[in-house]
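[step 3/7] inverse_fold.run input=structure_tokens len=352
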């Protein structure tokens, strides 16, 4: 019989997308296995675009909630599904409780919060793998004693989400046309201000490409709308005639619609964020901004991405806000640097 595998998903969108590399590896190892993704409800529409996933189940527990008795009840419910293995991707103790309560025989994870008893197959060498995606994939080789770090990790496939052409009703509702090449801006980041490139910098990049015949999509969640509005204002203050080609659609799409719009774009400029990983997994060329964070840990998983990264002595700090208050790690990465990097990626894109 084929193995039944439960994947306890990360909570963040970017991490969920990166975990697809583990799913691809598991399917290569055992093409007949069935994979069930146990994930927060908001991400199901993205996981549905991963062909390796056979079933999705909702993880109903909010980040930070222990709720021990409810986790025990949830585990008993999953026990009836007779999973053979569970891969637990978050590092927390509580994330491993449900597979434990479900009695899943093999519970595989990286070393995390004092969970030696409830995880029975553990990799304690995660620091030997620099990138998060490598750490996920290494779990597929938990039995292979020759896989001890980045150098010995077998090659694996990058995430690749299935995209579709946006339907005409969506384009009409958003006032969009596919007549001009589209650029998507991933100008938000749920983590905090230390990942947010200045809006006026996004504005200068946008204005440059609009003048060359592009349209620009300011995309994100409702809480990114103030940032998108600042970008739009900076473009209009430079040249009011550019306004029709900048589309503020923050908060106006769900994740599936956003993914399909991203798939229709010819380029992107993104902060280190879930949007960056979405653009990468859609195969769209992009420039990625790394101020407080490092490309060694969570780079875009794409051969069509270029990263610009801070050279400040305090980089990388991985803090949510700048401990010095100046955000020089972001300010030093100029629009001209991003424009030059992006244009090197796009030799075949026609411009007006």
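[step 3/7] decode complete -> sequence:
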């Amino acid at each position: 019989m084929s193995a039944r595998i439960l994947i306890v998903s990360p909570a963040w969108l970017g991490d969920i997308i990166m975990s697809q590399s583990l799913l691809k590896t598991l399917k290569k190892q055992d093409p007949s296995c069935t994979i069930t993704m146990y994930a927060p409800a908001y991400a199901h529409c993205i996981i549905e675009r991963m062909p390796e996933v056979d079933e999705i189940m909702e993880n109903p527990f909010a980040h930070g909630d222990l709720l021990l008795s409810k986790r025990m009840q949830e585990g008993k419910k999953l026990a009836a599904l007779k999973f053979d293995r569970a891969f637990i991707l978050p590092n927390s103790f509580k994330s491993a409780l449900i597979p434990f309560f479900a009695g899943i025989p093999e519970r595989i994870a990286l070393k995390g919060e004092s969970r030696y008893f409830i995880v029975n197959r553990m990799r304690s060498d995660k620091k030997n793998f620099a990138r998060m995606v490598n750490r996920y994939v290494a779990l597929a080789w938990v039995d292979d004693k020759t896989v001890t770090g980045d150098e010995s990790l077998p090659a694996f496939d990058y995430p690749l989400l299935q995209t579709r052409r946006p339907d005409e009703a969506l384009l009409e509702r958003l006032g969009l046309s596919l007549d001009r090449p589209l650029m998507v801006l991933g100008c938000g980041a749920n983590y905090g201000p230390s990942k947010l490139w200045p809006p006026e910098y996004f504005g200068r990049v946008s204005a440059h490409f609009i003048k060359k015949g592009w349209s620009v999509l300011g995309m994100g969640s409702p809480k990114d709308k103030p940032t998108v509005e600042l970008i739009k204002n900076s473009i209009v203050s430079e040249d009011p005639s550019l306004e029709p080609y900048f589309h503020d659609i923050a908060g106006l799409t769900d994740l599936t619609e956003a993914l399909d719009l991203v798939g229709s774009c010819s380029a992107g400029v993104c902060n280190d964020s879930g949007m960056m990983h979405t653009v990468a997994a859609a195969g769209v060329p992009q420039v990625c901004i790394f101020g407080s964070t490092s490309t060694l840990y969570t780079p875009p998983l794409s051969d069509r991405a270029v990263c610009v990264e801070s050279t400040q002595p305090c980089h990388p700090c991985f803090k949510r806000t700048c401990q010095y208050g100046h955000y020089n790690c972001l300010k030093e990465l100029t629009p001209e640097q991003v424009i030059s990097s992006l244009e090197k990626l796009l030799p075949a894109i026609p411009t007006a």
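[step 4/7] annotate
The two ends are 58 Å apart (CA to CA).
The CA atoms of residues 147 and 250 lie 43 Å apart.
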